[in-house]
Automatic annotation (TrEMBL):
Organism: Melanomma pulvis-pyrius CBS 109.77
EC category name: oxidoreductase
Superkingdom in the source lineage: Eukaryota
Keywords: NADP
Protein name (record): 3-oxoacyl-[acyl-carrier-protein] reductase
PANTHER family linked to this entry: 3-OXOACYL-(ACYL-CARRIER-PROTEIN) REDUCTASE, 3-OXOACYL-[ACYL-CARRIER-PROTEIN] REDUCTASE FABG
Stored InterPro entries: KR_dom, NAD(P)-bd_dom_sf, SDR, SDR_fam
Pfam annotation, one family: adh_short
Gene3D superfamilies in the cross-refs: NAD(P)-binding Rossmann-like Domain
GO terms assigned for molecular function: 3-oxoacyl-[acyl-carrier-protein] reductase (NADPH) activity
Length: 290
């Protein structure tokens, strides 16, 4: 114990990486922030389970990690499917020789609508995706976190500034992302005292992903019943706002963040550098909304 505290106190030296020997599940890691998080975790020595609804993208991400000298497997499936969650936990535990150390609940998308036009389906799908699925994953993984082996355990739930401040046109997403904060704090209070599990939320602001790209680019996701949901922001909506120079004036850094910057924040929270940070919401916004 004293050796570990000495490292944390300032004698930081991780020749095999800050996450060496740890096994991490990262949902929605076939692309974007999730894929970057998987890459950075693997670079820091973690064995990574790439979980994504898109089997090819999950496989490609895992293959790229392995080709770079890391260790990863792809376990593709829909987090809204209870059978998949059971399979995900089982395969991760097998990959980790009976251990799981980190869960990053990152999978998700937006399905926007103004309040009076939001359908029950839009509401139920987004709440299930961003709240219920992460809860079920954490519940299923409980036997691997409620242990006393002296090894670090981390749960990181991904949120958004929409969940902190609300956002017009996103009542379903704002509610779901606000709920993530309460879930995170409850995990920290229940599993911290006896088992040393840390749980934190990372809330992103304007990050360059398919969710913030032009809707005309054609990115979409398909719901379990086959409905296509278009992603992104309409170009007309962007054009009607401030010009390129002015549109980031509410961000002190005057620019959006990159997927790598977003993923780096998740890595920081998972790392020993944040060993005494628990139950918090870390805003990654370039200073926006401070």
């Amino acid at each position: 114990m004293s050796n570990r505290l000495d490292q944390i106190a300032g004698h930081l030296n991780y020749p095999k990486g800050m996450l060496a020997g740890q096994v991490a599940i990262i949902t929605g890691s076939g692309q974007g922030i999730g894929a970057e998080t998987a890459r950075l975790f693997a670079k820091e020595g973690a064995k990574v389970v790439v979980a994504d609804v898109d089997a090819k993208k999950a496989s490609d991400t895992a293959a790229a990690i392995n080709a770079s000298g890391g260790s990863a497997i792809a376990v593709a499936g829909d987090v809204l499917d209870d059978k998949y969650i059971t399979e995900l936990i089982k395969k991760t535990a097998e990959f980790g020789n009976g251990k799981i150390h980190i869960i990053v609940n990152n999978a998700g998308y937006t399905w926007d609508g103004v309040i009076h036009k939001t359908t029950d389906k839009q509401w139920d799908t987004i709440v299930a995706l961003h709240c219920t699925a992460p809860f079920k994953i954490v519940r299923a993984a409980a036997p691997y976190f409620r242990v006393k082996d002296g090894e670090p355990r981390n749960i990181i739930n991904i949120s958004s500034t929409s969940g902190i401040h609300g956002n017009a046109g996103q009542i379903n997403y704002a509610l779901a992302k606000a709920g993530v904060t309460g879930m995170t704090k409850t995990i920290a209070k229940e599993w911290g005292p006896q088992f040393g599990v840390r749980a934190n939320t990372v809330a992103f602001g304007y990050i360059l992903t398919r969710l913030t790209a032009a809707k005309e680019a054609g990115a979409f996701v398909t719901t379990p019943d086959g409905e296509k949901v278009a992603l992104g922001i309409p170009s007309a909506q962007k054009a009607s706002g401030p010009n390129e120079v002015q549109q980031h004036l509410d961000i002190p850094l005057r620019r959006p963040g990159s997927a790598t910057e977003a993923a780096s924040a998740v890595l920081a929270v998972a790392s020993p550098l944040f060993s005494y940070v628990n139950g918090q919401t870390i805003s990654v916004t370039g200073g926006r909304n401070m």
